[in-house]
Known about the structure:
single chain; mainly alpha; Na+/H+ antiporter like fold; 15 helices
Amino acid sequence: MEPRIFLYALIGVAIVGALALEKRLEKFPLSLPILFVGLGWAVFSLPLDLGWLNLAFDPALAVITECATELIVIISLVSVGLAIDRKFSWKEWKQIAPLLWLTMPMCIFGVAWMGWAWLGLAPAGALLLGACLAPTDPVLAKAVQVGPPGESDRNDVRFNLSAEAGCNDSLAFPFVYLAIVLSTEPPSGELFAGWFGVDVLWRIAAGCGIGWLTGKAMAWFVFGSSDKVEDSRFFKGREGLLVVAALFIAYGVAEMIGGYGFIAVFLGAVVARQCERRHEFHKRTHAFIDQIESVVLVVILIFFGGLLASGVMGALTWSAALLGTLFLLVLRPAAGALAMVGSGLPWQSRWAVGFLGIRGMGSIYYLSYGQVKGEFEELDTLWSAVAFVILLSVVLHGITAEGLLRHLTGRGLHKVRGDDQSVM
Length: 424
């Protein structure tokens, strides 16, 4: 039997298991990502000749990993964008702004400093590590995000984490680009000026513009031909084709003009969601993309377990483990809570937003992207540190997230004080 045939069967069994266990696990301090990572580790530890997944020393595998994780991040961003019921306005979304302009830089530069001072990384490698770990992951953070369209009461904790995960993947990318450039060129004023003008200003603006246009175009295509939206019934059963088409258009066009495809995909989904917000069409499109996301996620989590079994953390040191632990338990919670000071949330919820900054597949994507595009000498150290943080996050947040959110909701601490308005 060829190993790939065995993996096909394993993935099928895992998907069935996910359907059977998803609701049952809500009563226990355990999550599906924990189980799937454990399954991948167990299977790849068996003498089945499934391959040795060593990303630090296998450029071809790094390219495959970059493409696979890029796909799951794109799919997850669409899923998050379609799920957010909140009206898209500055008044409703302004509370996430400090998570982007304050929390993310604090995490990037805090991790970069620890990577340089404790792990002995070169400045470019330390900056890449900070950029990889800073974004809240839209893939594994599903347990703390808002529910399907039209099925969620107002929950500012879940909304903040969902919107942050949707926005901050692209906003961490400028620092990935800077790290890549610094790995091949000495720093200079001209380099930083070009980086700020192109990688910060232009790429973000281009991604936002393409996302907004794609979302508006998709909404017009579905709803624009009838005031009563009757014609949208024509698309029933074809929602998947539309959402996949819009996904690839937004990402592809944004990347072709030098913009950030991630922000284009997320913003496109959010903008499209604003049109006929109560319409059943949004639930159907979200259900379709959610199923695709579930399948791809199972594959990626088993693959991550295989990475662990293959020794991706072989170069992990006590210093790297301390860095990862302090980042998840101190730096991110403190930076997140600080960003929420003016939000109007109770202090318990402010700390919850900080603590529940889950790390996952986005970090793997950024590191594999940096490995393929740049010239970093400390790849084994970088992969060990990133894999450790993801594993710790999967276990720590998988055990605590559901219970913590139930506690906040049960005590009415999940909303901004005095804000009882509906999300719709």
